[in-house]
Write a structure and sequence with these properties.
The structure is a single chain. By secondary structure, the chain is of the alpha/beta class. The chain has a single domain (4-248), classed as Class I glutamine amidotransferase (GATase) domain (Rossmann fold), CATH 3.40.50.880. Helix content is 29%, strand content 22%. It has seven helices and eleven strands. A nine-stranded mixed β-sheet has the order 2-1-3-4-11-10-9-6-7, sandwiched between helices. A two-stranded antiparallel ribbon has the order 5-8. Strand 3 (54-57), helix 2 (73-92) and strand 4 (96-99) form a beta-alpha-beta unit. It is globular and about 50 Å long. The two termini are 14 Å apart. The relative contact order is 0.19. Residues 50-192 form the Glutamine amidotransferase domain. It holds the Pfam family GATase. Keywords: Glutamine amidotransferase.
């Protein structure tokens, strides 16, 4: 099988490593079949889609709606790298799954509105699938209503013109969407459990997601929220694309300059 590519953007080692471990658990892959690249550490370069079964993008402290002058050089470079990647991924309809940061990245790239109108505090929300979500081969493996963890300052308030809404919550109008047949993004974290949330609360205690004095209560609330398992959407994504056929876009033309990141 061709491996999957996981793109991380977290500058802090502890939450970055914990996120990768969670992705391994939730996809059912191992380090040989889910290759990690930390985008905050070095430029991505070109990606040869022929080398991969699919691409996953994790979350992080960056917000695409940050004031441009306030973005660090690293953040601007990561955004440019991902925009260039999506310039190839979306036309090829290549399997892609972006979580949290991914919904802002893909949403903006596809012409949606990403702003601060619908933030959700760190904790549990109830996600509801739309009819399209229930029928979707990846998102539809989740229950029609399920609990998941979120924590974001920005969100997608207007869906991109070509996107299909797959899920929503009471506090965010877009919890998941799809572009084409194979390009996905979620606002909620499909890899995150209460232990992982506790790790991130400690790492981002002073990043403005919550009052630092309330960090312990945020963790307690998460542990008592009733969210015990993550929806199996990441495993469904992997199982759908682990053996690529023409229906995924593999048979479509790939630009000749895709000669960069490859496994091994």
């Amino acid at each position: 099988m061709r491996p999957f590519l996981f793109l991380g953007v977290r500058p802090e080692d502890t939450p970055a490593d914990d996120e990768y471990a969670a992705m391994l658990r939730c996809t059912g892959l191992d380090e040989a079949t889910l290759h990690r690249v930390r985008l905050e550490a070095a430029p991505l370069g070109d990606v040869d889609l022929r080398a991969w079964s699919g691409i996953l993008l994790g979350g992080g402290p960056f917000c695409v709606s940050d004031v441009e002058d306030d973005k660090s050089a690293v953040q601007r470079r990561v955004e440019a790298d991902l925009a260039r990647l999506l310039d190839v991924v979306v036309p090829a309809d290549f399997p892609f799954f972006g979580a949290c940061y991914g919904i802002g990245t893909l949403g903006r790239h596809q012409g949606g509105v990403v702003d601060r109108a619908h933030p959700e505090p760190v904790g549990a929300v109830t996600v509801e699938l739309t009819p399209a979500g229930r029928a979707d081969p990846v998102m539809g493996v989740a229950p029609a209503r399920f609990g998941a963890f979120v924590g974001h300052k920005e969100s997608l308030s207007v869906l991109p013109p070509r996107a299909v809404l797959l899920a929503r919550s009471a506090t965010a109008p877009v919890q998941a969407f799809r572009v084409g047949r194979n390009v996905y993004a979620t606002q909620f974290h499909p890899e995150l459990d209460a232990d992982g949330l506790a790790t991130r609360v400690e790492a981002y205690r002073y990043d403005g997601y919550f009052d630092p004095a309330e960090a312990a209560q945020v963790v307690t609330d998460a542990r008592t929220s009733g969210v015990r398992t993550v929806p199996p959407v990441l495993r469904a994504f992997v199982e759908r694309y682990v053996h690529l056929g023409d229906e995924t876009g593999r048979g479509r033309a790939i630009p000749r300059d895709e000669i960069g990141v490859s496994p091994g």
